Amino acid sequence: MRAPPATAHLAFYGTLMSGFDTLDELGVRAKLRLLGPCRIAGRLFDLGEWPTLVRGGGVAHGELFEILDASVFATLDPFEDYRPGDPARSSYLRVRVALLAPAVEAWVYVASETPPSAREITSGSWQTGWAASAARAKTPANMLDQA
């Protein structure tokens, strides 16, 4: 097992959080240990099937993980379309940030640019916004459209 990087934490705010199956689908859950909720400085935007975080004003709610095996980045970086050797061609950047809470540094994947047409999630919680969107998608009017 490789030693964890100097910052031994990762913070997730979308489909990589523990309530989703993505960590299992990627085969990396055993390389991380959930520590609990966290708050990240930035603004969340809804891209449909996943959110994106833009650095700056606002607060995003997520989950903090301890990195047990640094090889996790060999899977997560391509999943997030982060190219360490070519950040200009990356959709996301992996940056070290000081979390708002708890008071630790963590790696966070942030958008390389502000999405032009995405809806901001003003609550800062994609899980809450996602659940609301899913509920709206199942309203009787929408169900008739799908019939």
What topology emerges from the helices and strands here?
Elements: E1 9-12, H1 22-26, E2 32-46, E3 51-67, H2 72-79, E4 92-98, E5 105-111, E6 119-121, H3 126-137, H4 140-146
Antiparallel strand pairs: 1-3, 2-3, 2-6, 4-5
Outline:
This protein has helices at about 20-25, 70-80, 125-135, 140-145; strands at about 10, 30-45, 50-65, 90-100, 105-110, 120. The chain has about 150 residues and is α+β, with helices and mostly antiparallel strands.
Would you mind describing this structure in some detail?
It is a single chain. The chain has 147 residues and is of the alpha+beta class. The chain has a single domain (9-146), classed as Roll (Hypothetical upf0131 protein ytfp), CATH 3.10.490.10. The protein has four helices and six strands, in the order βαββαβββαα. It has helices at residues 22-26, 72-79, 126-137, 140-146; strands spanning 9-12, 32-46, 51-67, 92-98, 105-111, 119-121. The strands form two sheets. The protein has a four-stranded antiparallel β-sheet with strand order 1-3-2-6, covered by helices on one side. The chain has a two-stranded antiparallel sheet with strand order 4-5. A hairpin with a 6-residue loop joins strand 4 (92-98) and strand 5 (105-111). The longest helix has 12 residues, at 126-137. It is globular and about 35 Å long. The chain starts with 8 loop residues before the first strand and ends with a helix. Mean pLDDT is 85; it is low at 134-147.
Q: Key features?
A:
4 helices; alpha+beta; globular; four-stranded antiparallel beta sheet; Hypothetical upf0131 protein ytfp; two-stranded antiparallel ribbon; 6 strands; 147 residues
